[in-house]
Fold this protein.
Amino acid sequence: MRLSHPGAPFQGVPAQDVFFAANDQFVQMGHAFVIVNMQEEMYPERPLQLFIDIQAQPSARNLLLGAVLARSEQIRAAYPPMKGRIYTEIAPTQFDLVTFYNQNGFSSNDAREEYIFPLPTGAAQPPMGCEFASVPLLTVEDQYAFLARLNRNRLSPISHDFLTLQMQQPYFLALGYYRAGHPIAEILMTGATPDTAALVMLYVQKDMRRRGVGKSLLIAASDLLRQRHVTSALTQGFSGNQAQAGLLRSLGATRRRIINVVPHINLG
């Protein structure tokens, strides 16, 4: 079995972070790559998030796993005091891959899950000195700036194509609390029908957390959706993220399904 790098970036990933595996007859057996994902906001206790992906025949998996783990250690060396984790996402029905990662020392106590929750009611109170307003999305520059703010708080980025598609949906909302024009918290909700309404993203700036700001913004958005006969919404969360889990519990959310298992190894 032989390892090689591509001659150019692969699917947008730098060539040095990508590995191809081929057998002795030079038949390609699969590929793997690692992506650095800094998450100071979403995982402040482990901000260095190294996503690995292996798409290969079973005979090549161990070789490719060793390659991406070695590359992950090289990347980690550039951030010596920083804690993090190496992780991947796989469907819960991929039993052979779940077993493969577990046998190689990965923990599977985190998962991306889908929840349904009743839209909250109550009084939405903007933080002192803040105004409640729609997110400015008139220009492409506005749209990319909004995405950049959202994606700083996500493991999987929202693409511009996704945003432009959702902006055409009848239940699209992009709202925020702003102080002197600067965002304090923002929310993105969307849906094609009342029973498919979804909370895609909600974030609160670090210095404003634990003050009920996120819940207040969600209530404000829910009031607008309720006027359109929406009563509940879908959302996704990671079971290993305590902040997300706490918000979902406070909303009375019910888990509908496990979307992906998240095998991982903690670093530091």
